[in-house]
Request: fold
Amino acid sequence: MLELGGMRGYAAKAAAKDVLKIETALAAVSKTKVERRDPRKLYNKVDREGVEKAVPRFDWKSYFTALGTPDLKDISVTSKEFFAGVNDLLPKFKPAQWKNYLTWQVLHSMAPTLGKAFVDENFKLQKLLTGQEEIEARWKRCVAATDDALGEALAQPFVAEHFGGDSKSAAESYVHAIAAAFDKEVDTLDWMDPTTRKRAKAKLEAMAYLIGYPSKWKKYDFSVGKDFGANVLAAEEWKLKDDLSQLGKPVDRERWEMSPPTVNAYYHPNKNHMVFPAGILQPPFYDVKAGVAVNLGAMGMVVGHELTHGFDDEGSQFDKDGNLKNWWEPPVEKTFKGKTSCVADQYSSYEVLPGVKINGKLTLGENIADMGGLKLAFAAYRSLRQDAPEKVEADGFSEDQQFFISNGQIWCAKYREEAARMQVVNDPHSAPRFRVNGPLSNLPEFAAAFECKSGTPMNPENRCSVW
Ligand SMILES: [Zn+2]
Reply:
């Protein structure tokens, strides 16, 4: 890659060694993925002076001036240790070595836009890491690049074509049904005390939801020309400016962090809201022609998953206004932690590949959300169908069974061994198989629906339950 960037073979080899050395040294002073899941330890308000003191060897004045924020004062760093580590590392490598490292960073991040030679070379690394044999079709890469650069412009025709009819009202009705199920659940949890219960309900009450697409579209005021690389740079520059324009202003609760065509959803702990882009309100997650059991087993579970994030081991540390403030009574908090460690232990026992186990601590928040999401969606489905004049059988499956089959179907996936290994190390979500088997085996209603014998994997004697 460095050779493609213009270096001679011998120099490129030496530079590549510098890159690896510096990357390794930076990794050694970085927090681990698990450490980065602790919001209290990520919030370190040090302000401008603190940053300057932590890394005096770096020219912060020039940096913030170049960024267009010369007067920035309020700063929180996610890792004080990392900053101290960088300060120590700066003199350990020669300026020429740092230059090589930065050259690589530019080439690596720009490679997908620099033409076939760079694209192919960049893919070699991806191939090595994921086992992927062929690069993704060009049109797919183009769509992804457009979504990345102009997400809310691309979204407008998508929304017009694919998010009409009752998609929005259906999603709203699910959110209400799931929220009602959670409210009821909180009332009946035997490990809650009245004070914490009241605060949990207040947090639920304050939780907002955004569905489909934003209330106002972003305006991309940069020009797009024939040069792909230049367009990508212009979009990146605009994105950074757009982010920085939020500084010093009240939190904009209507701002989206995913583009509307995205097949995903999120809960934002600082805003106490859930976001469901139009992209996920499509089959197989939601289908206007599907029954309540099928839609709730899929989209309902996703809604319940995001809602539960507000109360998982991370989300539960934020109050109803999105501030990092403890609202738990100490004894209840202790019980809660015991319940979450049951989940961590359970998932740590799952083997993705022979000898490769899930990291229960890395995936804890997602697993709690999967379990809560399934439980809430099932309760919501049952209550929506309780007065139904007759049950709908499909291919011989009862409604309860349809709910669970639909849930399994949204996680259908196939991984190469390399990709599965990488997922275990990097992804806070469990491997898809365990996103199904974990929550289902913890829910007695699944075993009842399929008559699983007691003591079998899907009907174990010991279950974990949080929400
Ligand atoms: Zn999640």
